[in-house]
Amino acid sequence: MHLIEQELLRVENLKKVFRSGEADLVLFENLSFRVKRGEMLAIVGESGAGKSTLLHILSALDRASAGDVYCANLQLNSLSQDEAADFRNRETGFVWQFHYLLPEFTAAENVAMPLLLRGQTWQQAGPEALRWLREVGLEQRAHHRSGELSGGEQQRVALARALITRPRLLLADEPTGDLDGHTAEAVFSLIARLHREHQLTSLIATHNLSFARRCHRVLRLQAGRAEEISPESLPS
């Protein structure tokens, strides 16, 4: 198989500039890297280094100031708002540090929401939501509202919601950042299992270097630049 066929994501000379008063703040520039299908890439760096912004650009939630992102044969910077929304709905699943579950809905309804927003009926989306809750070990909590779930359970529901559309690309922004050590380990292990079993390509921004060490590759953002470092070089 040729490299171009294995490649899902290509980032070329990416730059992001924010206007700060009268000055321009360059968050990062000249970022270039590629991600093959099936890889799990950790993105590490200090707070403010641009990890979240990079993930937002890679999911077409934000636009780069310069450079290009190619994913699933699309040039993301060239997409209209509607095209970007369609790309996110078809190709990406996103998990944030905070779960963003809708409190008035049950776990099953939260998981089904992306399919309901596509126009599916509850009769179509409900069984699929239950299947994904089973995948994350929460089928028995399907009819509980988010406030009745623990932090780890809420994040597992959010993961099921991200994957119910069967995306090829999973983007996770500090997905264990709000969890205690034991719960964080359980959630990361779940992400790793689902990554393998569903042949995902996953990019995970994390402060947890032990988790980053267990990814295939590590990209470190520092002082506006990106460098690839060996996972084995990180502390376990």
Quantity of strands, as a count: 10
User: Taking strands numbered 1, 2, ... along the chain, how are they ordered across the largest sheet?
Assistant: 6-7-8-3-9-10
Q: Which CATH class is shown? A: Alpha Beta
Number of helices: 8
Oligomer: single chain
Mean pLDDT: 90
Number of domains: 1
Task: Find the CATH topology.
Answer: Rossmann fold
Radius of gyration: 18 Å
Uncertain segments of ≥5 residues (pLDDT<50)?
A: none
Outline the biggest β-sheet: 6 strands, mixed
CATH architecture: 3-Layer(aba) Sandwich
Description:
The chain is an alpha/beta fold and 236 residues long. It has a single domain (40-63, 88-233), classed as Rossmann fold, CATH 3.40.50. The protein is 35% helix and 28% strand. It contains eight helices and ten strands. The strands form two sheets. Strands 6-7-8-3-9-10 form a six-stranded mixed sheet. Strands 2-1-4-5 form a four-stranded antiparallel sheet. α4 runs parallel beside α6 and α6 (151-163) runs parallel beside α7. The two termini are 34 Å apart. The model has no long low-confidence stretch (mean pLDDT 90).
